[in-house]
Design a protein that fits this description.
5 strands, 16 helices, three-stranded mixed sheet, single chain, mainly alpha, about 400 residues
Length: about 400
Amino acid sequence: MADPSEQFAPSPIGSVSSTEQAGTQGNNVYGALGSVLGYIGAEVATPAAFERLLWPQRYYSNFKLKSAPSMAVLAPMSGPLHKIGLAVMDKIFQHGILKGPHQGHMLGTAFFPELGWTYTMHSEDENFPKHTEPLRNCLWARALARICIPTIHSHDGRGIFDNVEKAYPSALRARVTVSHITLTPATPADRASMIPFVSEDTRTPGIGVFLGVITSELSAIVTATVIFAIQHSPWAFLWLIPLSVRLSDGNFMLMTGPSTLVLQFFRHYGHPKRDRFKEIAQLISIVLFLCILPFELVVSIILMPINLQYVWLGYQIYVILMMHICRYSHWGNPATTEGKIAEAFSKQIREGPETLKATLSITYHSRYREGQETMRVLLRGVDNQVPRA
C-alpha cells in the first residue's frame, strides 16, 4: 500500500516549471515593451545628441550653476540612438571623412552642422560685390534664432492697415523680427564696461565642459548610485556606460561691420581642427552609442534580475520623454555659446584684440512685408562702403 504522504507531496518539477513559466512570461512582456520603446524613441531622437558629443566646447563652455537643473533633467544621452546614429554615420561616410586623414569635408555633418540658410552681401564697393552664399554654421544667426518674440498687442486688437488692401484692416498673419547686429573691435572702454561678455573655448575642453557633461548625465548617476546602495549590484554600471563613452572623448537678420569681422562667422568660424586620431576616437564613440541600447536590452533580458529590468525600462521611458521635450525646445541646451549670446542680447574680464563688440537692434512686425520694408530702410541707411550680411 502506498504511503499517503507520497501521494500528496508537491512535485518539485511542477513547482520549478511554474516558476520558469512565470519568469518566461515576464521576460516576454519586458522584451515586447523594450522593443516598442526602442521603436518610439528611435523616431524622436535628433542629431543634436551627437553634435553635443562631438562639439562639447560649444554646448558646455558656458556652463553655470543656474543651468544645471535643466541640463540634469533634460539632457541625458541614452536611450534608442541607433537610427539617428546610423544617419549621422551615413553623412560622415557620404562626405568622405572615413577615407583618411584630412580627407572629406565636415560641413553638413555632426562635426560641423549646417543651418541650410543663406546670406546676402550688400555693398556698393566694387571690391565687395553683392552676392548670396550659404550661411554655413553662423554663430550669430544661431543666437538670434533663439530670441523669442514678445507678445505685442495692437491698439484696436485687430491688426494694422495694409498698403494694398486699404479699405480693410489686415488680420495678423505671422509676426517677424528684423534684427540688426553691428560688429566692431572692442575698445579698452568696452572691455572695462559692464557689457555682457561671452567666450568660446576652442582648445582642449576645460573643467566647465566636463562639469556640463557630468551634469547632463546626473539622472543616470543618481539612478546607478541608488541601485548600488539598495541592491549592491554591479548592474548599476549599466547606467554609467553613456557617461563613460562621453568622457572618453524665417526671420530677417542684418549684420554690419568690416568684412574681416563679419565674414569670418559665415565661412570657417567654428570649423573643427582636423586631427585624424581625435576623429577616429569620436567615430568610435558614435559607433559605441549605436550599440548601447541593443546591448543593454539583450543583456537585461537574459541576465538581469527582474526588479532591475523594470528599473532600466523605467529609465528608458524617462529618457524618451526628455527627448520629446528637447526636440521642440532649447530647454536642454542652456549652456551653449549661442544660448549665452541670446541671453546677453534679451558679465567677465575682456582683453585682447580678438574681442568684438556686438550691438543688436530688434524691431517686431506683424507681417512679413513690413519686415521686408524695414530691411530695405536699414540697407539704405547703413554706409554703403561697409560690407554687411
